[in-house]
Amino acid sequence: VSKCTYNAVMNLFNPSCVSNQMYMAASEMVQVVSPDLPTIHDHISKLLFYYGATDHWCPVSYYHKMKLQFPDADIKLCEKGIAHAFCLESSAETAVMVWGWIQEDVSKIYQ
């Protein structure tokens, strides 16, 4: 077991972490029921959406709906099999990918 996985699992038993997890989950289930489409529309040029291909919290159908709603937006579907909890096993790969997106955006500013 990798050290980062061990540390993450051990934090699951910390009462403060458990309390925070339960609060976040309860808040998300109540407050995040649908995307704020008007706000997304207003800021679409500043946004990038990255959907997991095997994410049970956010099914691929959400990706397809967003692509239909915003066909010219930067909306990507993971082709690398990265899990929802990317920080446990794919943090370096995800960081490199996000850094590449940032570099692309910054290079557009200076063209």
Secondary-structure element order, as H and E? HHHEHEHH
Overall mean confidence score, pLDDT: 89
Strand order of the largest sheet: 1-2
Helix- and strand-based class?
A: mainly alpha
Discrete helix count = 6
User: What is the first-to-last residue Cα distance?
Assistant: 46 Å
Report the sheet with the most strands, covering strand number, pairing sense and barrel closure. 2 strands, parallel
Overall description:
It is a single chain. With 111 residues, the chain is mainly alpha-helical. The chain folds into two domains: 1-33; 34-111, no CATH class. The chain is 59% helix and 7% strand. The chain is built from six helices and two strands. It has a two-stranded parallel sheet. β1, α4 and β2 form a beta-alpha-beta unit. The longest helix has 19 residues, at 91-109. It is globular, with a radius of gyration of 17 Å. The model has no long low-confidence stretch (mean pLDDT 89).
